[in-house]
């Protein structure tokens, strides 16, 4: 078995991509309230700061900062994924896999990147906010409802027309895909 190594930095800031197994699914946006509830439950049990987030139909991307002395982002994602799955199962929206008896909703792992500095942070936040345009879900960043972009606009950190219809900056790269 391959030993999967993650960079764990207590109190660190991380970029994540978390994906459903079925990449054609629209489950995350179709059942956004269930996902929000799972997220809030994890946040209450094990606090962290959500710097930026976007939820697309089949995956989500986020930047989190963990509390000082805490590096357990895996436990938080495990909690979010498990609670969302339980909610889907209770509503009979997901079934157990016959071979394993477990639910086959999420990809088993997630992609993470440790944020190195302020420039790296800004590039990842921009990438998150532009992601719905990149994937062709909307023409303008402001048109996607499931994004922290709207919080940034409310707080005066970005203008509502940020991102417009421009082509993605090639320097943003392809994080986690």
Protein architecture, described:
- By secondary structure, the chain is of the alpha+beta class.
- The protein has one domain: Alpha-Beta Plaits (2-Layer Sandwich).
- It has 5 helices and 4 strands; from the N terminus they run E-H-H-E-E-H-E-H-H.
- Strands 2-3-1-4 form a 4-stranded antiparallel beta sheet.
- A hairpin with a 3-residue loop joins strand 2 and strand 3.
- Helix 2 crosses helix 3.
- The longest helix is centred in the middle third of the chain and has 18 residues.
- The protein is globular and about 45 Å long.
- The C terminus is likely disordered.
Question: How would the blueprint of this fold be written?
Answer:
Layout: E1 13-19, H1 27-30, H2 32-45, E2 49-55, E3 59-65, H3 73-90, E4 111-114, H4 118-134, H5 149-154
Antiparallel strand pairs: 1-3, 1-4, 2-3
Structure at a glance:
The chain is α+β, with helices and mostly antiparallel strands and 177 residues long. It has helices spanning 27-30, 32-45, 73-90, 118-134, 149-154; strands at 13-19, 49-55, 59-65, 111-114.
